[in-house]
Amino acid sequence: MALAPLTAAEMEASLHVWLDTEFTFFKVEELAAELAVLPRDDQDFLLGWIRRIASTHITLAWQFGRRAPALLPRMERRLLEAWAVHTCDVFDRTGLQTALRVMEEADSFDEEQHRNDAAGALFDDIAPVLGNFVCGLSGRRLKLEEGEAAWTDGERIVLPPLVAALPNETDNFQLAKATVALLWAQTRFGTLRIDFAAIGARYDDPDRALARLHALETLRLSARIAHELPGLHREMQRLRATLDAALPAAWQPLAAHLAAPDAPLDASLALLDAAYALDDCPQWRDQGVLRPDAVAAARAARLDKEKARLRIKLAELLEEHASDDEPARDAPADKPEVEVSVRDENGALDFEITLDGAPLAPPDDVRQLLTSVYLDFGDIPPEYLAPAGEGEYDPNLVFDQPEDPDAVWHGTYHEKGAELYPEWDHGRQHYRKNWCVMREKPVTPVHDGFVRDTLARHAGVVRHLRRKFEALRDENRFEKRQTQGDEIDLDALVEALADAQDGREMSDRLFVRLHRAERNIAVAFLVDMSGSTKGWINEAEREALILLCEALELLGDRYAIYGFSGTTRKRCELFRIKTFDEAYSDEIKARISGIRPQEYTRMGFAIRHMTKLLNAVEARTRVLVTLSDGRPDDYFDVYRGQYGVEDTRMALMEASRTGIHPFCITLDRDARDYLPHMYGAARYVILDDVRQLPVKVTDIYRRITT
Amino acid sequence: MNARTLDPAQHLIEKEPYYEPVGDEIQLFEAAYRQQIPVLLKGPTGCGKTRFMEHMAWRLKRPLITVSCHDDLTASDLVGRYLVKGGETVWVDGPLTRAVRCGGICYLDEIVEARKDTMVVIHPLADDRRTLPMEKLGQIVEAPPEFCLAISYNPGYQSVLKDLKQSTRQRFVALEFDYPSAELERRIVASESGVPDAVAANLVRFAQMTRNLKGSGLEEGASTRLLVHAGKLIADGVSPVTACKSAVAQAVTDDADMLKAIQELSSSIF
What we know:
The complex is a heterodimer.
Chain A: H1 8-18, H2 21-24, H3 28-36, H4 40-54, H5 58-71, H6 77-94, H7 96-105, E1 121-122, H8 123-136, E2 143-146, E3 151-152, E4 156-159, E5 162-163, H9 169-188, H10 196-201, H11 206-228, H12 230-243, H13 252-257, H14 265-277, H15 292-325, E6 338-345, E7 348-355, E8 358-360, H16 364-377, H17 395-398, H18 405-410, E9 419-425, E10 430-442, H19 450-457, H20 459-472, E11 477-482, E12 487-488, H21 490-501, E13 511-515, E14 521-528, H22 536-555, E15 558-566, E16 572-578, H23 586-593, H24 604-615, E17 621-628, H25 642-657, E18 660-666, H26 675-678, E19 683-686, H27 693-704
Parallel strand pairs in A: 2-4, 10-16, 14-15, 14-17, 17-18, 18-19
Antiparallel strand pairs in A: 1-5, 3-4, 6-7, 7-8, 9-10, 11-13, 12-13, 15-16
Helix pairs in contact in A: 1-3, 4-5, 5-6, 6-7, 9-11, 9-12, 11-12, 11-14, 15-16, 20-22, 20-27, 22-27, 24-25
Chain B: H1 25-34, E1 39-42, H2 49-60, E2 64-68, H3 75-79, E3 80-85, E4 88-93, H4 95-102, E5 105-109, H5 116-119, H6 123-126, E6 131-134, E7 139-142, E8 148-153, H7 166-169, E9 173-176, H8 182-193, H9 197-212, H10 224-235, H11 240-252, H12 256-269
């Protein structure tokens, strides 16, 4: 049975709290009255969202509340939700003003135009599929992004958040797919090679000319698709029949000209004068829009860089080849002859490099560069094929270099070169996308006597650890009395024969098998480097790491050590102490010794990043051990308190969902109430005495990995 | 219905296995065979390595003994072992020993899957000694000139754990296999599965699309073998899109988004 609707008075109380009316003076009474007439189900839905948005920004929640009741009858709940989440995302990215504008867009919500929204294809749903789809098509790798309209610049394809032109979801998806294919074809079959600015300048009304050129190209590319992807073309025809007007009669002859499956770009350009003269210009729902500026900008940024890259790669290829064949050859005297032949047939692009007459299969990166250059010019210009001379280019400028985290920080407040991680917003019950700006930083090694002193101080423990861990080392051993094996177990056989003589049943366990022990564990340690660890805790952590390394070296497990700290979401830092690939050397010891307390304890991003690193390591068992001194906390931020606890909990859950075993060691003695909740997905242990840490950690590690 | 039971050491392949040469691999293999050099076949799965071996065994008229290697394959599994029969121990030859004794072709498929210590037993057979020491019997079997050792592996796995040791790989003549060119692959698919040329061409185009996805979500693109499977289903009346889904998409990935994307690719073509 449905619950009785809440009364206005009941709702007012909560709204006062959520919207902080004491300071904001929002008139929640009106809102409550509006909500009071709705069924309980709708009330709960809207109130839930008001509360969730209010945790992001109160004004947004208020605006949502004012609009949503009116929208509810017209808009699908799924879309209302998407709209709310989208608004919060916009707020995260660009602030209140733009978010409010997104809110207001809902006012212009025209029912007639949006009658199919319920069956619309949401970008987030279709992007993973279409992203792979477009990867499978030949040509340059194109990225799929979300934007206001459908367009492409030759490097990415942008789709709107919702494609909803048709009353059923499958058709809307097909429409999105057709759009993606047409935009892909613009890159693949030369549309983007057009110098749109120059063409536009030739006509009195450049916009009119470009619109007609776009239409001509759509006709040409559709014919291409009919040839390359006949199945898709059938779908396109079907959708166009319902969505678009028939091609105007005056355009029919133009379309006939462009219908040949190999009509070149020039064919469209040749028809432009004729098309310009025509009054009406056909448009299709699947064609997207043309963004000549974006195309030109992307192309300008790409050309020189790729020229340099290709020439450097060719030079490398030559060098490799020269040293293979004839090491004594003096290279510079005679410039080697490089030729590239392009095979563009049957939908596939292939390249063959001929080097002084000998064919050479281009490696993948060269092939991709060649593809990209070919698509920009329709050919490979000869100057692109001159291998770069020694020192002609500075590779640092040509290839993307990892950004120096400190240099970026000294510059403006941007996110260049950093990795972005989402964060779980407990109040919103949704992720904040690309919220944490994470950088890996090195630890300054300190070469002092710390390691020596630690080992001396804990000499007894070290000896004890050695014994314990050596015992752990699973070794190859023979297992006797097996039903199958490489060798015969003679003792068992003699016994069995004796049994048989006695008339008893003969055992079939007569073989010896070699048991091969493979300890296949990768473990990542995440160490709290926040300011609160200063003093005892920091020292204990460092000692613990030294003892741990000693023990792990005995076991041969692969391990990495990272420290985390940060100030606000814009500056999340992970300190590289030991990566999986590094050996435990003096350098590593010095780095452990150099671990110093930094700033705050933002944990979610660190766990997410370590999850990613761990999953890249090949191992049967993956363990993530975090070592922290307490509650997640960040500088003047909501991260303190429940938000941080929930985000950390979510990050740990994500980790265990990917098959990692998280384990948390904590030194927080006071606030145990939140621990079981926060470490929900992980197992954890609380240490009372900091001084126990070095001894305990190795012991804990032994327990959790056996 | 009675399935034929064959002894691989005695059995010669009677009918010519269909094989389209991509380059000069037949000539190379024959030369290596005459010169008694073992052969290593490299290439992605399903591009015709095993078929090539069958074809060569037919050409050279030697029995072919194939061992599919797995990570529990021990040296005894290859060489042989004592078994207990009626209170006595009896020696039973393993496939490698049988191949050596009868002068056949021993083909160790996916050799990297076998344990590293297992691979070492083939070393004396793979260099100019051409002998197989059998420690447990205290014997050495000398390989006749007709014996040939061939191994295959797929370098695409890119795993440090599954790499061939230098001491092993440097004993072999390597033949590299890759997916055949589009035209050749079309011919292979058409002739193996019996679909019309146009359908075969579309299947090949579809395969190329999945190969474009290698590295961005797919470990490996669709192999020629999968295309033949799909072709056979189509020839039997299954619709092309369904055939591509069952024979190709489901075979290359389990990822839901990737499956759907591959589906969209095939439905775009057919």
